From TrEMBL, chain A:
InterPro entries: PaaB, PaaB_sf. Gene3D superfamilies: Phenylacetic acid degradation B. This is Phenylacetate-CoA oxygenase subunit PaaB. The gene is paaB.
TrEMBL record, chain B:
One of its GO terms (cellular component) is cytosol. Gene3D superfamilies: 1.20.1260.10. One of its GO terms (biological process) is phenylacetate catabolic process. InterPro entries: Aromatic_CoA_ox/epox, Ferritin-like, Ferritin-like_SF, PaaA, PaaA_PaaC. One of its GO terms (molecular function) is phenylacetyl-CoA 1,2-epoxidase activity. The gene is paaA. It comes from the Bacteria. This is Phenylacetate-CoA oxygenase subunit PaaA.
Length: 102, 319
């Protein structure tokens, strides 16, 4: 398990991942990262860097080393469980074709 | 099995990870930071993305030169916004490069120590206000022509940074065009100022696409890796094709007596670029190389206490 790419732990200012909510009713979406000495400055820097053109109404910043990611080398095995389970998708059920509102 | 994207692998068996890399490139998918990638691919990207970031940061200087002397409050506000965008572009790109395993500080040091390059266009000076117009129209125009295909670069974080940058660059080019158009609709003296500025920037802007294809040794590999999508000469030719009608709207003359539509080639014929000048500027002997580096180092040194104080404050708050 590891933090997000780019975090080294050796720089004067730590790395933060930035998430922006574009509008009410939408989730915060990852937009990029930046360096800042603390959380307050990270939010301010994120505003200046990622919302210069009304791209958002809300910002989250998260220290990159506080994020745990899945192991990229295990992607096959880790995400295997849905494979072969196409009955979890509506398109698996074809007998109802032509029947309305189904 | 697909043909290898890494040209050094041609003619031998690949490991499973090499095969996966090749397949991702072949199917036009994206390589993400934690994927296996050839060392040379990583190094090429670090070099290209960090040079690109340095260019954005150094690129603030020729224009900031005119912020205090912009002819109106509106133009001043526009110029400040544009220079702020360049800083932002530098930061997006530094972040993208960092995902490849180099730290921000290493990249900054490489620039300050003169070990890293930046686009040689920023070593030209901006003696008149019209140069703000020419930079926007020609320099940002050339940058856009170069950068739009980079939005599809095979390395995910680079492509994503380029998408943001390209969205913002189109304002830069239009505001430059508008500056020149206003000058061209002004007095005789203003028209002359605009034309002289276009004469200064036209050739350096065409040099931004890099050396001709037969002298660009890294291009073949970069294209096989799908970092680069078109050759230097293809992009340069495409750019000139866009400029000609725009120059007509402006009423300026592009300073090339041999510029002529070639019906057979379906492209413009043009004079040979002065590659000696290009190599001189790259070698550090352009009009403003020393000045740009001096100011960058000075800014870094003058900002040291801010970086240190902010880090000290954060440590104290956390304790």
């Amino acid at each position: 398990m590891m933090s997000t790419p780019g975090e080294t732990g050796t720089e004067a200012w730590p790395l933060w991942e930035v998430f922006v909510r574009a509008n009410r009713g939408l989730s915060h979406v990852h937009v990029g990262s930046l360096h800042a000495p603390d959380a307050d400055m990270a939010v301010r820097n994120a505003r200046d860097l990622y919302t210069r053109r009304n791209e958002g109404v809300s910002i989250w910043v998260v220290p990159a080393d506080a994020i745990t990611t899945s192991d990229p080398d295990a992607k096959g095995a880790f995400f295997e469980s849905p494979a072969g389970k196409n009955y979890r998708h509506a398109v698996y059920y074809t007998k109802s074709e032509g029947v309305k509102h189904l | 099995m697909t043909s290898p994207a890494d040209l050094s692998l041609v003619g031998r068996e690949f490991s499973p990870e090499e095969a996966q890399f090749n397949d991702l490139i072949a199917e036009d998918s994206r390589i993400e930071p934690r994927d296996w990638m050839p060392d040379a691919y990583r190094k090429t990207l670090i070099r290209q993305i960090s040079q690109h970031a340095h260019s954005e940061i150094i690129g603030m200087q020729p224009e900031s030169n005119w912020i205090s002397r912009a002819p109106s409050l509106k133009r001043k506000a526009i110029l400040i916004a544009k220079v702020q965008d360049e800083a932002g572009h530098g930061l997006y790109l530094y972040s993208a490069a960092q995902t490849l395993g180099i730290s921000r500080e290493e990249m900054t040091d490489q620039l300050l120590e003169g070990k890293a390059k930046y686009s040689s266009i920023f070593n030209y000076t901006t003696p008149t206000w019209a140069d703000m117009g020419s930079i926007g129209w020609l320099v940002d125009g050339a940058a856009i022509a170069n950068q739009v295909p980079l939005c599809r670069a095979s390395y995910g974080p680079y492509g994503r940074a380029m998408v943001r940058i390209c969205k913002e660059e189109s304002f830069h080019q239009r505001q430059g065009f508008e500056i020149l158009l206003e000058l061209m609709q002004g007095t005789e003296e203003q028209r002359r100022m605009a034309q002289e500025s276009v004469n200064r920037w036209y050739w350096p802007a065409l040099m931004m696409f890099g050396p001709p294809d037969d002298e660009s040794p890294n291009s073949t590999q970069s294209m096989a890796w799908k970092i680069k999508r078109f050759s230097n000469d293809e992009l340069r030719q495409r750019f000139v094709g866009m400029l000609v009608p725009q120059a007509e709207v402006l009423g300026v003359t592009l300073p090339d007596p041999n510029l002529k539509w070639n019906e057979e080639k379906q492209a413009y014929d043009m004079s040979e670029i002065d590659w000696d000048e290009f190599h001189e500027v790259i070698a550090g002997r352009g009009p403003a190389n020393a000045e740009r580096m001096r100011r960058r180092r000075e800014a870094h040194e003058n900002g040291a206490w801010v970086r240190e104080a902010a880090a000290a404050y954060a440590r104290k708050q956390a304790a």
